[in-house]
Amino acid sequence: MSDLLTVRQLQELLQLDRTTIYRMLKDGRLQGIKVGGRWRFERSAIEAWLRASDQSFAGSDESQDASTGAVLPLHCIQIIQDVFAEIIGVGAVTTSLNGEPLTEISNPQPFCREILANESGRQACVRSWRELARSQGRPGMFFRCHAGLEYGCAHIRVRERDTNLIVAGQYYSEPPDEEEQARRVARMERELKLAPGRLGALADTIPVLEPRVREKIGFWLERVASSFCQIGQERLDLISRLRQIAEMTAIE
Questions:
Q1: What is the pLDDT of residue 48?
Q2: How many other C-beta atoms lie within 10 A of the C-beta of residue 96?
Q3: Domain contains 240
Q4: Long-range pairs for 183-189 at CB < 8 Å and ≥24 separation?
Q5: Residues 72, 43 share a domain
Q6: What integer is the mean pLDDT of 227-238?
């Protein structure tokens, strides 16, 4: 069997506390094996992981990592986002500050899925998300997108600055005026060059959320954003330590 590291040895190597090591095991950022009920880590696997991490972030800086979303481990973020969207019953996405989606949209409504499948529609959604990212709204505040649907958002802050945005929405807070909705949908069909009536039928499936559910969205958005902040901070700390390790010495 290849040389194995204990949790304590890995802590000393990466300069991370035990809680962080176990959290990274749980979310898949670290791979380990159990020997006699205790976690062990193959030295060769850690060496390969360190090399890959160093190469992945070589030549970049933290501001660039943050602006492109590299500060967040997206495979972990996607899982949390999916669960949040399913429980609350809304669509959700994590974006860069430029409005570009970094994750797959969780629980998308058919109406929004149709718009996002159209390149012009997608760009309109990106512009809406960009405006949200630039907004200075207070927690729990809601906005309307280009299609007239309601959204809430929360900024993800790492090291005291905004890095990303989590958005949740694709619903009405109250039943829409039918004539107004029909005019808006017809205009969008013309702008997106869609067949007349294609969006109209899907608009009837947009949910109208009860006030109590709407209130929960703001609360849980802040909770999810806080979790993402913590994950992003841990990732940046780890990247910094990996670079220091790479500069000082290689594992022998």
A1: 75
A2: 19
A3: no
A4: 184/147, 184/148, 188/115, 188/121, 188/147
A5: no
A6: 84
Instruction: Indicate the number of domains in the chain.
Output: 2
Task: Convert the pLDDT of each residue in 96-131 to its tens digit.
Answer: 888 999 999 999 999 999 999 999 999 999 999 998
- DSSP 8-class letter at 137: P
Inform me whether the pLDDT recorded for 244 exceeds 70: no
pLDDT, position 160: 77
Reference 181, options 168, 196, 199; nearest CA is 199
Q: Smallest Cα–Cα separation from 62: which of 202, 160, 195?
A: 160
Secondary structure class of 202 (helix, strand, coil): helix
* Chain position carrying tokens 């409504």: 109
pLDDT for the residue 122: 93
Specify the DSSP class assigned to residue 106.
Answer: B
What are the tokens at 247?
Answer: 């500069």
